[in-house]
Amino acid sequence: MRTAPYPVAHLGALRPGFLSALLALLTAASPVAAGDAVFSHDGSRVYLNDASPGTLAVIGLPEGRRSRLPLPPPLAESGELDAIDRSRTGSLLLLAQNTLWEFEPETAHLEKRYAVAAPVQLTAFAHDPVTGGILLMQAGSEEPGVELRWMPSGSASTQRVFNRRCPFLRNPTFTPDGRLLFSHEGDLWLGSLAQDPDSEPSRQILNAHRHAPLALRETGLGTPSQIGVRGMAVAGDWLYVQLCRMGGSGWGETLRIKAPAPGAGDDPPKDTAESRTRMLQIFGSLEPLGDNGGQPALCASRDGRLVFFLGEGRNAFLIEDGKPPASLGGAR
């Protein structure tokens, strides 16, 4: 965490919600929320959130042709988007100004799915392609850290998610088989949500463990150079990861490691020997794909054949069937 500009003891007089939001900001891997790009349902194009209010960038594949998709009001009037994802049916899920919208590009139909009021902030979300439910991340409530809420498919109400030891998890992403990936203190975590059978009212429980210690951490007098996990996507046998500078914007790197097989690695290691075996397998498979620069973005197609990411200089890259990245040129 960055050094506080005044004694930390002074923070005790502030509202707990304000302190939670401040700590979440200082431990961020980037000022832009996760979910900057998503494939269309058929994999023929990528929708890119490039911080242009009122529109989405559209990249047609495989040629990489560029166009823009206007967003309908009132979404177009909400300013920059915070996150983007795709639902099971192919519609786009868009987060802006503490409101989650569902948008159908073909018909321009727009529907409000969820909203919060100040001082609570809706900071990120992730859509589960298996159940159709949505995991929501909120900051600024009376609870310390980030508050997690679960919205089941077809429901307008949410359930609390009990999260005991990861108060500042970020960048949630569901795998194609419904497991949950997220970052915490820059490292990559793997887990799942489970219904608590003994809770009234109903709640979910986050069961997760650190899957790979990918963060590069340091301390010193100079500008922070540490980087941590910011974006994740599973495609085929690979788990793609983007790391970005923690506590700021700018450079980082994109890499891939072997994706955990279905049902494998769901439980934490039982001892250091098992942890060593897992880490050797993970880092033995690690393959660097290039540097990041400026705003990164990463997503995988629904069938797992294609991966899109932004690299250094906002150059766009496409990976097909696990092959080396092919350049699509600049993203603007």
Question: How would you describe the overall organization of this protein?
Answer:
This protein is mainly β and 332 residues long. It has a single domain (8-330), classed as 6 Propeller (Neuraminidase), CATH 2.120.10. The protein contains two helices and 24 strands. The chain has helices at 16-26, 272-285; strands spanning 37-39, 45-48, 55-60, 65-70, 83-86, 92-96, 99-104, 109-115, 121-127, 134-139, 147-151, 159-162, 170-174, 180-184, 187-195, 203-212, 227-235, 238-245, 252-258, 287-292, 297-300, 306-310, 315-320, 326-330. The strands form five sheets. Strands 9-10-11-12-16-15-14-13 form an eight-stranded mixed beta sheet. Strands 1-2-3-4 form a four-stranded antiparallel beta sheet, with no helix packed on it. A four-stranded antiparallel beta sheet has the order 5-6-7-8, with no helix packed on it. 39% of the residues are buried. Residues 1-34 have low confidence and may be disordered.
